[in-house]
Amino acid sequence: MTQEEINSTNWSQSVAGVCLKDGKVLLARHTYGSGKGKLIIPGGYVKFGEVPEETLVREYLEETGIRVKAGKLLGMRFSAKDWYAVFAAEYVEGEARSDGDENSEVIWMEVEDALKDETVPGLTKTMIEQAVKGMAFELTPYQTANQGNYLYIGR
Nearest Cα to 121, choosing from 22, 33, 21? Predict the structure, then answer.
């Protein structure tokens, strides 16, 4: 990672996404930190000036070779120092491949198998379950005096 990339990253904001296709979920085997060796949903840190949905699309392409579109917001985790948002990642195109850095492999795994796999952490399993159930917040437009805006509303 270059110094410019380090300086442009907001280390207190991160996103991930659950991409489902043909009964399978896309998972990446992490190569560092507390997730080392585990199969997790892809994601990463938000860059300054970037909105979370853009981060999801960028990180997915960089880490997996898969182009996605950010869908509904599946879940949020907050702490005193940071936040983490998980979206439905709608498959657009691409072939799954490892980035050779942050992950050692990227695979499509049957959802049922992922939910039983001991190398898939609890948070990833919970978010997969949310995506399968369709339980999420949907991006909804609203109008202010000067412009249109969006927020996520539970549906």
Answer: 33
Backbone angles phi, psi at 60, to 5 degrees: -60, -45
Distance CA 137, CA 76 (A): 10
Rounded Cα gap, residues 115 and 94, in angstroms: 24
pLDDT digits (tens, 9 = 90+) for 20-42: 999 999 999 999 998 999 999 99
Cα-Cα end-to-end distance for the chain: 39
pTM of the predicted model as reported, rounded to 2 decimal places: 0.90
Token pair of 52, please?
A: 């979370």
The CATH architecture one would assign to domain 3-154 is Alpha-Beta Complex (3.90)
CA–CA separation, 69 and 46 (whole Å): 16
Q: Are 10 and 45 in contact (CB under 8 A)?
A: yes
- What is the rounded CA–CA span in Å between residue 80 and residue 142? 29
